[in-house]
Specification:
The complex is a heterodimer of chains A (432) and B (300). Chain A has 432 residues and is α/β, with parallel strands linked by helices. Helix content of chain A is 27%, strand content 32%. In chain A, the strands form five sheets. Chain A has a six-stranded mixed β-sheet, sandwiched between helices. The longest helix of chain B has 28 residues, at 106-133. Classes of the chains: A alpha/beta (432), B mainly alpha (300).
Chain lengths: 432, 300
Amino acid sequence: MTDSVIRVEGLSKDYHRAGPGAAYATLRDAVLDVARSPLKQFRKLSGRISEAERFWALRDVSFDIRRGDVVGVIGRNGAGKSTLLKVLSRIVEPTSGRVTLNGRVASLLEVGTGFHHELTGRENIYLNGAILGMTRQEIRRKFDEIVAFSEVEAFLDTPVKKYSSGMTVRLAFSVAAHLEPEILIVDEVLAVGDQAFQRKCIGKMSGVAKSGRTVLFVSHNMAAIENLCTRGIVLHHGRVVEDSTAKSAIAKYCELASHEQHLPLAERTDRQGSGQYRLVDVALVNSQSPSAAVVEMGGDWVLNLEFAGQGRISQPHVGVVITTMTGERIARVMSGETHGDLPPIDGNASFQLRIRDVNLVPGLYQLVVGFRDQATEQLDYIERAATIEVSARDAFGQGRVSDGVQSKTVCFFDCEWSVEGLLQSAGPVSVG
Amino acid sequence: MTSGTASPAEDALHVSAEPRAEPSGAPAFAPIIIEPRPGWRAVDFGELWRSRELLLFLVWRDIMVRYKQTVLGAGWAIAQPLMTMLVFTLFFGRFGGMSRFFEGPYPLAVFAGLLPWQFVSTSITSSGLSLVTSANLLKKVYFPRLIIPFAAVGVHVVDMAFAFLTMAGLMLWYGVAPGAGVLALALLVPWTILTALGAGTLLSALTVAYRDFRHMIPFLVQIWMFTSPIAYPLERIPEQYRLAYAINPMVGLVSGFRAALLNYDWHWGCMAVSACSSAAMLALGLTYFRRTERRFADIV
């Protein structure tokens, strides 16, 4: 018996490029297709698709995970992380290759799967536990522990629809955290709840890891990956490009990110959305440097976003997210939230955006840009659309420059101090 | 363009599943192999059996939710067939003149027919949509997919129990006592459930593959009702067509329920044909479901 708990050999998974078309196939199409060429239709039903329509979400992925490994899987959106987890969780089936799982698997692709808002907290613990694969006795045995961890004792017999979203998430995570699998597969669940609860979750996860169980963990949170994981796997366009320590995986991930970014925006393919419109240029209009996008800390950012495409967009919505270099989201501005619909466009268009007093500490930041129609159809979505450097300045008029790298923070705020109980003169202040 | 690597043999995928819900600490654990394998997949009854708790939880959830969301709650299980019976009695029985074709009280004959019919029709309507409404579960958790349409049918078993109580009340009211034939219910009820499972499973998989079925199901149910001998007796169908007519499984079921509860004649030939077509429908439903199951998470 080897010590390998997850062995993945030559795993591939493809999708129809026409994805949604296949999903919403209507009977009429099927009937017409059968009438036209019965044989082809039969092949399609049996799962064959032509090469031109293929999109490989995973391509020849192999790795071997030993008992007790805590593995972080990182990669950009669309790199195949979710597909990998779905295949390992047996939700989606591979096109070729083979996975051997040696142990009971619990996968948490989402917290609160199957929660029903009409049911009480107590009822949902049982329901969710059963959905995640616990037996009734098991849930009963751990019930008190789950409730204590979730901190919702007082509301156990209240329907979940009356819970705040934070309470729902805490309850859901608590059920999941009390699964006792040999292999735990987790997707981004740490991105929920408030800070204190997130810390508690990370604590629970490292507890699981320390007890010798195997954890496979997908996240965009590089800090969590670095803290938790003993090993990192980087996926890029469906392939494994790095499989080593968490640290070097993160380095590889950042390198890939900056490499991809050197491509002109219009040529990049790592984007989502219908493609009717594409972001082709982002310019920082008020840049301090002619060759790069540099702005002083605390200054305004004036951005010019240029989109190329055709067709009328009656209610354009543009969103910009500012992230750190490792992809943690700091802030976002959405035109829909702040200004409603922007004026309609028809053909190539550019949008100007001014973000006032951006109080980020000096360093490099990236932009994610999304473009939607009527706040429903995603036209384009691209991460790392631009990098902006925030330069140091004496933001507080103290004759010295604040350094964000040293302070390990991202934001700064204007502030005032006042002190009560001043020491009036040199000498003891007498009381009474 | 990527070169072709998928051979026809890789089209189908086989997952050999092992218990996923053993109590923790269970030592022996055969590895789970996930890989594509050719051919049709048989129903994994062992895995279904191991997931029975989940099935019960899902049934329980739907019953609880219905109790909490509706004022009448279980009352609906009694009111629905009762109202249908009243409408049938008035319009088909009295104005349509159907009541003279039954020997006993018309409302009783109709209600005996509605017992299996209401169960089958409500079951297939909800299990037909069950996969689509459970899309989120399908995309996030693994469990035997058949649990979903089965649970949708399971909810209506409770309704059928209430309908049986109503039937008992009606029989007391009319002073009709069942004979020894009532024992046949021990076979007729499971047969009814299997019929609903077959049709429901088939429709649920078809609804995922072709959304048209969402709109077709109510229409199919309506046609099925009029082609079943609920408002009228089986004897109204000319004798030479009866066996062909019994390809509709409801024919055997409705006439069987009437014979068992109200001492009407047994139509053995028709029941045999109906039983065969129920079995065929169940086999088709399960096979088609297992065949398309692998694509559910991708297309639902």
